[in-house]
Amino acid sequence: MATTSRSATAGNSSSNAALNSPVTERASEAAHHAVDSVAEKAATAEDTLRKTAASSKATIDKKQEELKMQMQGSYERSKQFAQENPLAAAGIAFAAGMLVSALLRRGN
Q1: How far from chain centre, in Å, is Cα 84?
Q2: Which of residues 105 and 4 earns the better pLDDT score?
Q3: Which pTM value belongs to this model?
Q4: Tell me, what DSSP letter sits at residue 21?
Q5: 82 with 89: CB under 8 angstroms?
Q6: Cβ neighbours of residue 82 under 8 Å, at least 6 residues apart?
Q7: What is the DSSP code string of 77-106?
Q8: Burial of 89 (0-12, 13-18, 19+ CB in 10 A)
Q9: Which residues contact 89 (CB under 8 A, 6 or more apart)?
Q10: Over the Cα atoms of the chain, what is R_g?
Q11: Could you tell me which residue, 21 or 65, shows the higher pLDDT?
Q12: pLDDT tens-digit profile of 5-45?
């Protein structure tokens, strides 16, 4: 048992010596500095991504609203045209249906 405690004590003193060596301290400081630097860059990148995502969402929402307004305007104009010219609207609808039908038959 005495041999075991002596070897354990010798192991502790050699590990303490390694922890106190200037090379180990410099390596440890360099590693900490590198980790801190990467963490800062990651935080900056995350912040930039969040801002870009928020800006993109705002742009998409704006474009979606503009498209919605254009669609409503087109619908209103089409509805007004159909009310003013019912025969022409029926003819256009018939021709469009024939065109779509012909295109679908060709595809098969």
Answers
A1: 48
A2: 105
A3: 0.47
A4: S
A5: yes
A6: 89
A7: HHHHHHHH-HHHHHHHHHHHHHHHHHHHHH
A8: middle
A9: 81, 82
A10: 38
A11: 65
A12: 444 444 455 555 555 688 888 888 889 999 999 999 999 99
- 2-6, 73-77, 83-87, 88-92: segment of lowest average pLDDT: 2-6
Residue whose pair of structure tokens reads 């070897």 in the numeric block: 7
- The two tokens of residue 76 are 């209103």
Q: For tokens 């619908």, what's the residue?
A: 75
* Summary mean pLDDT of the chain: 85
Rounded-to-integer distance, Cα 92 and Cα 101, Å: 14
User: What is the distance between the terminal CA atoms of the chain, rounded to a whole angstrom?
Assistant: 90
Residue found under tokens 């590198």: 34
Residue with tokens 């209103």: 76
HSE-CB for 72 with a 13 A CA cutoff: 6
> Which residue's entry shows tokens 């979606």?
64
Is the separation of the CB atoms in 18 and 24 below 8 Å?
yes
